[in-house]
Amino acid sequence: MTITSPGAAALRGAVGVAHTRVEGRDKVTGAARYAGEIPFAELAHGWLALSTVTRGRIRSVETAAVLDMPGVLTVLHHGNAPRLNTDYIGMLGVPPDPTAAVFQNDRVPYAGWPVALVVAETPEQAREAAEALVVTYDEEPHDTALVADHPGAYPAEGHMPAETEKGDLEGQLAASAVVVDARYTTPEQQHSMIEPHAATALWDGGRLEVVDSNQGTTWIQGELAKMFSLDESSVRVRSEHIGGGFGSKGLRAHQVSAVMAATALQRPVRVVMTRRQMFSLAGYRSPTTQRVRLGADLDGRLRALEHHSLNQTSTVYEFIEPGAGVARVMYDADAHRTANHVVRLDVPSPTWMRAPGEAPGSFAIESALDELAERCGVDPIELRLRNEPETGPVSGLPFSSRNLPACFREGARRFGWADRDPRPGVRRDGRWLLGTGTAAASFGAGAGPSTAKVTAEADGSFSVRIAAADIGTGARTALTLIAADALETTPDRVRVRIGDSDFGPAMIAGGSMGTRSWAWAITAAAGELRERLALTPDIPPEGITVRSDTTEAIRALARKERHSFGAQFAEVAVDTATGEIRVRRMLGIFAAGRIVNPLTARNQLVGGMTWGISMALHEEAVRDRETGRHYSPDLAGYHVATNADVPDIEADWVDDHDPDDPVGIKGVGEIGIVGAAAAVANAVWHATGVRHRNLPIRPDRVLTAASTPDPAEAAPSDGGAADA
Amino acid sequence: MREFGYQRAHDVAGAVALLAADPDARFLGGGTNLVDLMKTGVERPARLVDVRELPLDRVERTADGGLRIGATVTNSDLAADPEVRSGYPALTQAVLAGASGQLRNMATVGGNLLQRTRCGYFADVTKPCNKRSPGSGCPAVGGEHHNHAVLGASGHCVAVHPSDMGVALTAFDAVVSYETPDGPGEVPLTDFYLPVGDTPHRETALPPGALITHVSLPPAGVAARSRYRKVRERASYAFAIGSVAAALRIEDGLVREARLAFGGVASRPWRAHAAEAVLTGARAGGETFAAAADAELAAATPLPDNGYKVPLMRDLVVSVLTELAEGEAR
Amino acid sequence: MAPATSSTSSAITLNINGEKHQLTIDHRTTLLDALRERLDLTGTKKGCDQGQCGACTVLVDSRRVVSCLNLAVAAEGREITTIEGMAEGDELHPVQQAFLDLDGYQCGYCTPGQICSAVAVIEEHAAGWPSAVTDDVGPEAGPPPLTPDEIRERMSGNLCRCGAYVSIVQAVSRAAGAYEATRDERRTAAAKEAAA
User: Fold this and answer.
1) This protein's superkingdom (chain B) (predicted)?
2) Among A262, A449, B262, C36, fewest CB within 10 Å belongs to which?
3) Which residues of A touch B241 (CB under 8 A)?
């Protein structure tokens, strides 16, 4: 398989060739400093205190005793904190989550809500004082349980329409030879990046400086400026190295409380979340409960498709996990209905988490398709190929490129799919039952307006400044290669500086849009710089700088369905006597546009697939039913995959070229998780003959399922298997 | 975490005396559990007596051919010890199945036996827990308990003992030696953990102020053909949802000797005496093994969400015993 | 035993990467916080502060431990090696080089812990220690080959949330191979020296 798929004008040398990370040496020697690691003189340490009740009002914050404790400098709470402006729409088009706008009133909308910040000279003193702080509450009854038919559920838009509908769904279902009607659930999932959220705030010469760990410095700059009613130019946010983000590293309680404390004390204040605090303060992927109804002819061609997804949000902030969105891209049917609903509960606010919508949504729809393939007796890949749409199933727009069939063909060849016996539960290796499964993937390829400055230095080298964020994606390296090619030079002559809001507005590292957006801005500036250099052979000592802004170019982009696609394959071993599941191998083939750096891109894709294993088998944040509070909110209670859970995973790609796209990059950060959990779950079915529609597929669920009949298969009258 | 004093002890008598001098003092071994509990506020000692430099870091052969394991021997050193690996392979396997390489390098044998449950209610000082705060209630019974105990629990506490090492030691008739201000003493590991009853906060038979000095094992014998299998919710670095330590001696197709203990399903490392009684003298084979498991699990009292542990343990027992029997046959 | 400066703090000397550091320390301070907050050795990372992620892994007396559950005061008298002490001047440790070359990381935050752990894994394996996936733990069986499965199990105390395990295993495998090769060279050299 060739690994390069350059746009016609782009092939110069650096892009498409594996390149180790430009900051790699700093990362392997410990020299790379993350947000909580920049030293400051006179640094004070803030420790957040969180509510221990699930809903109610703060009656009192007993600060006196704590203020007498050694080293304690101040206690901030709703009684003394400055009032914030929260009536605004931020750079990403959404209002701020009140969880970040700390200490504004006495309401407690969920357990783990920030109620105070204790600041002390040392972290040990701050911690002890925060733990000693007595806060009294008037408790109120709460509702924290997401159930499928919650009366409070309502359709909600988010960044896409809440509901779409065409055709006569019930009529087409009635006319279908085969109907699958199944409910799927995914649990609350936590980002669990290894670097906790950390920020240091200080005032320096009338300017607010925040050293932070975030996914977009100009994004956080804008939020803080609006919230504290400051001019944007008087706020600077830096974020050089970020220890993972996955959607969680936006504006949160730690930056805002640090700014409040730095302002009150007029000295630098650092606030770092503890691992336990992250469970309620850092956002999470909402649990979902989904229902999929598919109606098809005997050959597997879809007549009816319905995907309904419900998620929870907090009472103070509306966040939609649009699980039904993926069906609007992937499959067409004569009757097609999708809906994303949300219900407000007394729980923390969820947020974006690696492939929001697509990750849980693809688990449901791709599992349902596997069930349909089984009922129709059609190979699961063939079933998907028979249902390839010509245009966007809902939008009717053309696809910029849609190379899903190529992914399946290449994947099937490399995985050895042709030799697969479709019967479930018939392969054994000692105590293990073996099975294989597949699923399709897609993720949107968007771009956000960005600015970049490219400078030709007097010594013949080049500098690039852009407020990009490298949260582990390899963006800093990818942008170096992009810039080198655009400047017709070699990567070693290009220095890319990122993570500083002083570099001007730029897209965040999110939505798989970062590298695409930033590369666009850099390419534009570099192109203009080369034109200038052609006219100006002598470079002045300060260099020649060109600034670009892609706002207009992005607006001018033709409306199309722009997505990356992929085919996921998994082989699992299941011991039905102990409930253990091991993924033995995994392969993902993707059509993800132009691959800038094969080394880091492969790592991103494999990382996403690793998340798929973790989602399928391990991850679940558990709430105590009675109190609605987290049970074991730590990394021993919340299991993410360990090294031993992850086999040799292969990821590769097919050519995916859109001649009309000025960048050609689609982004690889999220597509890897999409469909991965479904591929694992489908393989578990193939191994055992048991469908698991509730994630994660824990040992106890395997054991319980082995002794309980499958409700969908046992009750065809419920639409389970209406094979006419 | 409140402020505390710290002293390093250099001999056993000194360590015991230091502890006796302060009712709020605790011994500090590897710290893998205690320091964590201090961070979560479950433990708030006024003084730590560091015992890691006590001369208790040796695994020695005893006159009768058994082993005497010092209390400060690390999990890693215990697992790597050639005598343990050849004479008690299930003990090595159990230790290696626990925690991570880093934690095994820190954790000590004495500390392992005294580690506290990982029940999420116990670890959260904002929630009730009879073990941490006697009389406050047990939210696990009506709440989250899919990993809780099915054996040896009571309505007052359904927490499991998290040790892997202790399961193998229990199977092999280990004896715990300790020192107190009033002199030394010893207690078999099978009697070391107290019944839960209505006093889940009273966990061991150690007298107040006692320091574990050694754990002794009788001569290997049947333990030389032993095996430990652990099931958990991920492949590594997780506590057991069920585990089995087993040893078997078969002659002429009959089980002559059997040792069996369960982990991850009970309030303590659970010696399966009832199962051993069924096994001993019976014909080695799947039916006997299943009957043995059933005999032990007859006492199980599952809750709504942890009933799966009963068939899990049954299958695990049969599977491990079958492996041992087949190994014997080869 | 260090002299107590008060009942709850002590003046201690920590030996880190071959250098002695004197400091007065609150007994509550973990080795991890002493490194990061007091000695500006921020290469050692705090991920969970509870011994559940491995990001804070350092070597104490040549053995890997989690520094978040070690009290600094209890680390006095021991030799501590952190990620900052792994390279020989400009020359990276073979494990560091392998992580760099094979992209054995993404965000880099768990990386110092992974590298310290991997260095110890290679030593533990060379010392003949079995692991939880070793079939025969008997001492006569000898050390098992350091297969990918062995590496995965031995490295499982270091979580990588970015999901770079596949390349981490490749990096550890490559570094272990390099270690074996150089160890044979070292042995040959030592034997020659002894013979001479």
Assistant:
1) Bacteria
2) A449
3) 699-700
